[in-house]
What does this fold into?
Amino acid sequence: DGGITQSPKYLFRKEGQNVTLSCEQNLNHDAMYWYRQDPGQGLRLIYYSQIVNDFQKGDIAEGYSVSREKKESFPLTVTSAQKNPTAFYLCASSIALGGTVQETQYFGPGTRLLVL
Amino acid sequence: GESVGLHLPTLSVQEGDNSIINCAYSNSASDYFIWYKQESGKGPQFIIDIRSNMDKRQGQRVTVLLNKTVKHLSLQIAATQPGDSAVYFCAEKFETSGSRLTFGEGTQLTVNP
It folds into this structure.
């Protein structure tokens, strides 16, 4: 059963704490993305990675960090520097064909992060 | 029923009616567009896409229309069903942005039985 999995479904963060959100895909996709979604708003890009061991900042990278050590995994860390972390976090992936990453992105089920 | 996407974020239709969800995109250099469906508490689900060299593309019960002159994208859902109730997002890709997508704010579609 191929797809994108995100865990946990709900995550609680205490003030000053770093937390890590997991994203795994078994689609053999090359590119992976992290988005943040706030109520009633569209998706905003945090970080993306088009190949293993490489990633780029998106539009709202401050307070977040990522790593891409394996093709199938792209964890996102929400650091204590992110002052307003409460949101729904979505991971996505897309395939590369002929060396070009395709635009069609497929999403995981999301992780809701809440601050205690 | 018809919505204007960013200006009217909700659309309510009767079961069996056709729905039209609109999206005004921002960049005349965008060359690829996608519609996603997002049910409450879930990740967005791919519905249909279209490239800028096309005006129309049809899927199962859905049609996407692209009007590049006025930078307008629409999603038509035929014979709308209660299971179609969700938020619908359009996304665009700029010519120079690689695989990055820019998302609209979404339209909430409610189907009344």
Q: What stands out?
A: The first strand of chain B starts at residue 10 and ends at 14.
